[in-house]
Amino acid sequence: MQPFTGITGPAATLLRANIDTDVIIRIERLTSVVREQLGPYAFEALRYRKDGSEDPDFVLNRPMYRDAPILIAGANFGCGSSREGAVWALMAAGLRCVIASSFGDIFYNNCFQNGLLPVVLPEATVRHLAAQAEQGASLTIGLLDCAITLPGGEKVSFEINAARRQALIEGLDDISRTLRQRADIVAWQSRDRAARSWIWDLSDVDRQ
User: Fold this and answer.
1) Which of 72, 82, 122, 189 is buried deepest, with most CB atoms within 10 A?
2) pLDDT in tens, 187-199
3) CATH fold for domain 6-172
4) Can you count the helices (H) and strands (E) in the chain?
5) Predicted TM-score (pTM) of this structure
């Protein structure tokens, strides 16, 4: 997983509430497009017209925000089905941070497994940041100090679970964090095999 310590850039605003994972990425794209190439299909229903051409009014199609690394979203962003591909699509589109007043629970958890930073802030603060971004301000997201800095020096602090913060900084998902304890795991297995060999014998049979 790519580490995240901070990022600076324009922030695209999409304040529509309840954007679900099916809107973020259609399920059929996940069966036919590799993870790294999902970017053009993010927000497909909003991004393209019926004839397949880009809708110039959609924020990520505007020149200023086409490569924006930050998205300021509406409440309950990422609700709906438990589709990790929604996070993949956003990251393939170049996004590294999503700011919203609330997130779908599963989507929020999936963000941390893939290196996307979800920032939860009060609705009024989200709208304040969106207003600044729409005027052309770039935002700096710092995970080391857990703060968003505007060009004029204004800072907005955010909270994040300490373990998840550290995992993002180090670029570790849950599996990678577990494997850091590999030596302890192997040692425990050896002790348990000696103490309860019959359990391990049954496991060997099950694998055959």
Assistant:
1) 72
2) 777 788 888 888 7
3) Aconitase; domain 4 (3.20.19)
4) 10, 7
5) 0.84
